[in-house]
């Protein structure tokens, strides 16, 4: 059966943006309120990313934030999108995630990435002498699986808590490299098309063609992360999206800054080269009214056949951000209703 909006789960990736003239404390409170709202709206999971040395992002310690969000919600799955495994010893990750999974049973996800989540100098400060550890990513993922397994109970080194717990592992990617690994290990695959759209389709094809069923997963499972900015009108959504454009421009120019308020026009803020680069990075951005989102997202889901849509929304005004996620849920659910009715009519 081909996927459509009616049978695609929808979730949140929170980059924990720091707003201009605000503090990380404000960011964390905004994140918790957002999680509580999307839980009511039927979102499947709420993931937090790992980034370091960025003035615009407060998610340098995702494990701590996962505990904060999980403690303030009741049914929402909460996890990492992701933990950058080369920055951490696998045993420590197993113990930390095992602790969270023991506190919040059946609600913790572990998304793993191989990138540093920072610049190289910062990565060196984090990793010390382990700078080549990104090459060890496949082995360290398997190490984590071993620590979580009940069979490791007789080993000299054990993850307690963590051992024997059913903690789902997701492989994250922004290129085709991790697609091969996720396929070989039979693990679900999440692609970062919200900032690296160029290889999405190629990576999904590689993953599906090479997938090997495992104890964790019988068939391929794909999550695509995209930018979503929804508002009552296309014009209002376009206006709100200028905060995201400013954020991405600060990334590509190497001048990170807190998330800025929207502006009427970007013309005075970027040149042609910067505009082109930002627009390329934001190719999979869905910006507009509910009607626009319904059409554009249905086309995206039909093209990619993803199992789950994960939305990230860098919107400056927090009421508007919550409202955007509300409109997204309504858009996806309203697409489902006529399709379900049509299927019933054909029976």
Describe this structure in words.
The chain has 11 helices and 9 strands. The protein is of the alpha/beta class and 347 residues long. It has an 8-stranded parallel barrel, surrounded by 9 helices. α3 (90-103) packs across α5 and α6 (177-185) runs parallel beside α7 (200-210). Mean pLDDT is 91; it is low at 337-347.
Q: Sketch the topology as an H/E string, one letter per element.
A: EHEHEHEHHEHEHEHHEHEH
The N- to C-terminal Cα distance equals 16 Å
Number of E strands: 9
Side-by-side strand order of the widest sheet:
1-2-3-4-5-6-7-9
**Structural class estimated from helices and strands:** alpha/beta
Number of helices: 11
The coarse silhouette is globular
**Please, what is the average pLDDT?**
91
- Portion of residues within helices: 40-55%
What characterizes the major β-sheet?
A: 8 strands, parallel, barrel
Give the low-pLDDT segments: 337-347
Range of strand content = 5-15%
